[in-house]
Specification:
alpha+beta; four-stranded mixed beta sheet; Herpes Virus-1
């Protein structure tokens, strides 16, 4: 009886093998070729970091303007720092969780927080505790808060309701 079981198992295995041989494969992956990743060189060390190396931990975009606090971590961009502060009331460092009562937005990737003279930097009352090392950063950050149409760049809106009504003519909707 065990002989019949082995014989039927062998038949099933042979039939299955035959079916697999007759099965057509996709042209995307040839039968005898494997897709493998290219090995990286372990000795490829770069001493000079390029701007593309610094990526924000929150949005994963390249950092244009750094947000640096007393802990000197600068792994998030100024935009994410503004979002955390103004929308979520989160004033801590993303890495070490130290309270960041003061944050400097800067173009400089290496200058420590202690090297900034807070008294000489620009600040805005709408973002308490945020200091700007350059006017370009101030302009870009406060452009985010302006009520403007994304299509025609009209900035004459005094409130959000007026902007909502305006964008309807472009067939856009703000929820």
């Amino acid at each position: 009886m065990s002989t019949n079981t082995n014989a039927s198992t062998t038949k099933r295995t042979r039939n299955t093998t035959m079916n697999h041989k007759n099965h057509k494969r996709s042209k995307a992956t040839p039968r005898n070729k494997r897709v493998t990743a290219q090995p990286t060189k372990m000795n490829d060390k770069r001493d000079d970091k390029s701007d593309s190396d610094d990526v924000c931990l929150i949005c994963c975009e390249p950092i244009r303007f750094y947000a640096v606090g007393p802990c000197n971590h600068r792994n998030i961009c100024s935009l994410c720092s503004v979002r955390r502060r103004s929308l979520y009331d989160q004033y801590d460092c993303c890495l070490c969780k130290q309270d960041l009562g003061q944050v400097v937005f800067t173009l400089d990737r290496a200058q420590p927080f202690s090297a900034f003279n807070i008294g000489l930097l620009t600040t805005q009352p709408t973002l308490p505790g945020v200091y700007f090392a350059d006017q370009v950063i101030v302009d870009e950050i406060f452009n985010l808060f302006s009520l403007r149409c994304p299509i025609c760049s009209d900035q004459s809106f005094t409130n959000l309701f007026a902007l909502k009504e305006h964008v309807k003519k472009h067939q856009l909707h703000y929820w």
